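Appendix C: a fully annotated inverse folding record. The material below is reproduced so that readers can follow the format used throughout the book. The structure is listed first as C-alpha cells, followed by the designed sequence.
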C-alpha cells in the first residue's frame, strides 16, 4: 500500500438486484476509515489493473465501512465485470481516500434529490446525511421495475421512507412520470441534485431549466460518461512544454493514446471525461472541451482540460507536461 491508497477488505458482498451488487468495505487493519461527506466517491483499483470510481452510499457518520453499489454494465470496459466476477467476500483491494465533486450545496435550506438507476448510490448517502441533520428533502428514484431497484430495504426504513417516491418506468399500468410536476417551480433555498445515466440527467436538468431553475441551484454527477466519439474529430499537434517535443494527434486517436504511443504517459482512470484523473494544464492554444468534469466557467478559462476525451480548436496545444 502506498501513501495515496488504503487497503480494504470486502466484508460483505450481496446481490441488490440481478444486475447490482452491494459491497461493504472495511479497513484491512480494522482501523477507522477516512471520513467522507455525502456525494463522495472512491477510486477502486481492480484486479487486472483497472481503476474505477464508485460512489459511497452509506451514512457519512459511519467510520468503519464504505458501502458501494455496482451495476454490471453490459457496455462495461471491464470495470464492473471485474467487480462482479473477480471481487468476493474476503478480497483485499486498494482504494483511494474519498473525494467529493458532488457535495450537497451548503447554502441550500431544502433539497430535491433525483436518482436514475445506479445513480441512487450518492443520492442515498445524501438522503441519510439530510435526514440526520433534519434538513427537508424529497427523493425521487426512477428505475425500470421494483425488481431492478437497489437498496429497497434501506429506503423503506422508517427514517427515510416518508421522503422517498419511486417511479417504475416499465409499469404500463402506472401513469408516465410528470417530471415538471415532480420538479415544481424553483424557490429560494431549494437545490436539485441528480445522478444517473447521462440521458436521465440531461432530461432532468433541461426540464428544470425550462421551468426557470437557476443554474446555481442545479447539481449533477454522471454515473458514467459515453465512450469517446472520434468520428468527427480533426487532427492537430500537441507540444510538450518541458521538452519542446511536438506530437501529432491523428483524428482516430485521443490525446492520451497518441502521447502514450510517443512514450508520454498521462495517468487515467475513467477515460470518459468524468473522473478528472487526467486533468492537465494548458499553457497555449484553445482546447475543445468534451468532458463532464469541469464546470462551464472552468472550461471557459481554457487553462486546463481532460486529454482522455477533449481535443483542440487551435492547430497546436501546449501542455504543461
Ligand atoms: S481519465 Fe477520467 S477524466 Fe480523463
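Designed amino acids, in order:
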Amino acid at each position: 500500500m502506498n501513501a495515496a491508497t488504503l487497503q480494504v477488505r470486502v466484508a460483505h458482498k450481496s446481490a441488490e438486484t440481478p444486475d447490482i451488487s452491494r459491497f461493504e468495505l472495511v479497513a484491512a487493519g480494522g482501523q477507522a476509515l477516512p471520513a467522507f461527506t455525502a456525494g463522495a466517491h472512491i477510486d477502486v483499483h481492480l484486479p487486472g489493473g483497472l481503476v474505477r470510481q464508485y460512489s459511497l452510499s452509506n451514512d457519512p457518520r459511519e467510520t468503519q465501512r464504505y458501502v458501494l453499489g455496482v451495476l454490471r454494465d453490459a457496455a462495461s470496459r471491464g470495470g464492473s465485470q471485474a467487480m462482479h466476477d473477480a471481487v468476493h467476500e474476503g478480497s483485499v483491494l486498494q482504494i483511494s481516500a474519498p473525494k467529493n465533486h458532488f457535495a450537497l450545496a451548503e447554502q441550500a435550506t431544502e433539497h430535491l434529490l433525483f436518482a436514475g438507476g445506479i445513480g441512487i448510490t450518492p443520492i442515498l448517502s445524501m438522503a441519510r446525511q439530510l435526514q440526520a441533520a433534519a434538513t427537508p428533502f424529497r427523493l425521487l428514484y426512477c428505475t425500470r421495475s421494483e425488481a431492478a431497484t437497489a437498496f429497497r430495504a434501506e429506503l423503506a426504513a422508517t427514517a427515510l421512507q416518508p421522503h422517498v417516491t419511486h417511479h417504475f418506468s416499465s409499469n404500463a399500468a402506472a401513469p408516465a412520470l410528470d417530471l415538471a410536476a415532480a420538479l415544481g417551480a424553483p424557490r429560494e433555498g431549494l437545490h436539485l441534485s441528480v445522478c444517473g445515466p447521462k440521458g436521465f440527467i440531461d432530461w432532468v436538468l433541461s426540464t428544470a431549466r425550462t421551468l426557470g431553475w437557476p443554474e446555481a441551484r442545479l447539481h449533477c454527477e454522471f454515473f458514467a460518461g459515453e465512450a469517446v466519439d472520434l468520428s468527427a474529430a480533426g487532427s492537430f499537434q500537441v507540444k510538450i512544454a518541458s521538452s519542446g517535443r511536438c506530437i501529432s494527434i491523428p483524428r482516430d486517436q485521443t490525446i492520451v493514446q497518441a502521447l502514450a504511443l510517443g512514450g508520454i504517459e498521462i495517468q487515467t482512470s475513467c477515460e470518459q471525461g468524468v473522473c478528472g484523473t487526467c486533468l492537465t494544464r494548458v499553457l497555449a492554444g484553445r482546447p475543445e472541451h468534451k468532458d463532464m468534469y469541469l464546470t462551464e466557467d472552468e472550461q471557459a478559462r481554457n487553462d486546463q482540460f481532460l486529454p482522455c476525451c477533449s481535443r483542440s480548436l487551435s492547430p497546436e496545444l501546449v501542455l504543461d507536461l
